[in-house]
Specification:
about 180 residues, alpha+beta, three-stranded antiparallel β-sheet, 1 helix, about 15% helix, rod-shaped, disordered C terminus
Amino acid sequence: MKRIKLFALLLCAFIIPTIMLMAGCNKTKTKPQPEPEPHVHVFSAWQQSVPASCTETGLMRRDCVDCDYFETSTIAALGHNFEDWHETTHPTCTTGGEQQRSCLRCGELEKETLQKLGHDFSDGWKFSKTEHYHYCIRCGTKADDSKAMHNFSLNEGNECSVCGYDRRSDVLTFAKTGGGGLLFC
């Protein structure tokens, strides 16, 4: 029995390394292959794929002519291209007005409120048979704080010393202001 054990032990000591050596002999050694060179993309011209608008960005794209790779680039929004302002409602002394303009590209309408003008009272006088007053040169409104009765102290009490109204005349003139116009009351 000792012999059998010894024989088995020797057999294992020689057989196992021989099998391993034989398994390694079947392999062929090859030289390591060099890394392939990276692909260099050759691109087509940029093409607009989504056009930009006044308020939205667009998109450009170009493709590699040798593979499926592509690149994209954003196109900035164009912004509005407004025409000149057009007054739609003229402001007056007491009410505001409005102006508007539209974008020549997309038609967007922009409106703006115009301030009321306010009265522009004259330095000269208008007068009637009983009173004189400053007036708005735009709308003709009387300036309430300038309204006063005539002071007939000139020309024998017939001419107002403030506005120049002569009560002997049926025709009222702008004598003191040099306006040269006629006013009938």
